[in-house]
Specification:
404 residues, alpha+beta, Globin-like, Alpha-Beta Plaits, Arc Repressor Mutant, subunit A, 5-stranded mixed sheet, 18 helices, 5 strands, DNA-binding transcriptional regulator, PucR family, CdaR_GGDEF
Amino acid sequence: MCTMSWERPSPRVRELIRRGAEIALDPPAEWLAELDAATLSGPNRRQVAEDPVLTAALKRTNRSNLLGWASANIRAPGERVPADLGEAPLAFARDLIRRGLDESALDAYRSGQGVAVRLWLRIAFSLTSDPDELRELVEVSCRSIEAFVDDTVAAISVQMTREREQLTRGTHAERLETVTLLLDGAPITASRAEHRLGYRLSGDHTAAIVWSDDALGDLDRVADLLAAAAGEPRPLTVLASAATRWVWVHGAPDDAVLRAGVARFPAVRVALGSSGLDADGFRRSHLDALTVQRMLARLASPHQLATHEEVELVALLTTDAERADRFVRRTLGSLATADPEVIEAVRAFIAANCNATTAAARLYTHRNTLLRRLARASKLLPRPLEQNLVHVGVALEVHRWRAQ
């Protein structure tokens, strides 16, 4: 174990630390991937890993910690590195509290520490082969990383306590608490919930999750667009985190109006649930929107807006993303990388119940053009289309929504 006593390292080891920190300042992508995977694994981080906003926030925090420690050791090699209280870790702390999570999620820092030490040792062993230098270098580095993580976790815990105190005194906290009770099926009366939310629970509801990694100022604008597309004068908007809004409207938004409006804010994403009746529909629509959001994150989908109706099947199929990818590759073969017009021809043909005339009309193309594209697709598929229609249709839906 590393001791926490602090002694300044020798000039030679300070120089080695500085050189190593310069390498760590520009880590390979696979190192960052390993760090992210470690910090997102484990039972205490399950809710973080399943939430794309929290996942993105944790990844930003990982980079902030890594770059902060490396930069400090370039400036002052071997000195105690101050806790990282930059924008990324503080935003992550706020989002944890607003999601109802506690300090146990900070175990991610400990997992990250283990990976950081292992990766740093690779650097250390590349810097010197002298046993005395190497021993001192490893001891000082281990002590520095451990102290940095301890100090940062302690400081973030204090920030989380302050954030929790602020939230419990605000209107947003009351809304979030009430919505959470409704979503959990807790015994709160409809009249009390309506009074606290300022929103009617009777009738049809459509829920949406609006989020962004960086365009936080546009979240409320998109929430307003959603309400306008539904003709809802009094939507319910809940501040789920700094980067996320939960929204409910009565009825359903006009799809074309909503898509046109959201397109003006390309950094904001929207997951739309199915419509449902009364308090149960209020809850179910939100859970459906959550399913859509998680699917988009799981597939790293480029789509800005998705509805539960259009992705329900894909969401079910891609719970295990790796197996879904294998299914797509096995079913589509070379068609998966064909020109977009060829892929769209097959998708339209299947959607039109294999009626080439109808499919061509939907694509605004000549029937003979469609038939040529279908013939090209048949050569790319592992099995003839007519023998595997259902599987090809499903695989194309998954292919449509995942990152290409």
